[in-house]
Structure formats: structure tokens, C-alpha cells
Structure prediction request, 166 residues.
Amino acid sequence: MASGVTVNDEVIRVFNDMKVRKSSSQDDVKKRKKAVLFCLSEDKKKIIVEEGKQILVGDIGDSVDDPYACFVKLLPPNDCRYGLYDATYETKESKKEDLVFIFWAPENAPLKSKMIYASSKDAIKKKFTGIKHEWQVNGLDDIQDRAALAEKLGGNVVVSLEGKPV
Prediction:
């Protein structure tokens, strides 16, 4: 069931910026988002970029040691969100980068919130063309261990995520 919620243009712009890895200046690379959260606007009519809930590539190694752990900390414990995470990982054969669309719906989020986020998910997913990995997470236990994301990305062939062994 669709909720009638629309996706703000800024959300699409952020997605396109994360998806396209054009060879750009070092400064542009640093401003690229590694991870970002999206939420519903106050009137519950639009999906918007959540203010201050992002990790920039330039922050890694500076103010962010482990981008994955940092991303998990951005998730609100009692409400739903959509997230986009640019996972850097290694398999036995090669290094890879993939965008992962995450639907965060913790057990203790209000039922009304879970319902509107669930029914609005298709609206945002339709705008995120070419996403290979989608992950619905229902609590910190499901997401804290990086092995769970590694499993989504390629199962037992993934040997490291964000430079840390799985």
C-alpha cells in the first residue's frame, strides 16, 4: 500500500552524488557522503535528508575511525529511518564498493511510524535506481556486527568491511 509520501529532490541529488563516482578533485571526494539518513518531514508528507545525520568521506580517518560503527550510532533507537551506506569491502578476489539501502525499523519504534515508513519505502526505492543491496533491520542486534552487512554484500566471500576483518 502506498502512503502518498513524496521524495524530496535533495534526497535524489544525494543519492546521485553517492552513486556516481566521477574522478573529481580531492576536495570533492572529501565532501562525498559515505553514509546518510533520510526521515519523514514533520508533516509526514515528504522523505527528506535528515539534518546532521551523515558521514562524509573526508571525515574518515579524521573525526571518524570506523565509518560503519559511526553509521550505526546515527540510527535513532526508537524511530524508523531510511539509510544509504556506501560500503567498501574486499572479497577474496577484489575490492568493491556498493551502495546499500537500509530500512531501519527498530522493534520499539511507534507502530504508526513503522506503518508509514513501511508504506513509503517503495517511493524512495523507486528513486534509487541501480541499488543492488537492500536490508531491513529491526534492531541494533541485527546491525551492530559488521558480519551481518558482509553477509548482505556477498556472504562468506567477503573478507573485510571498511578495512576491518569480518
In short: The chain has a mean pLDDT of 91. The longest helix spans residues 111-127. The longest strand covers residues 46-56.
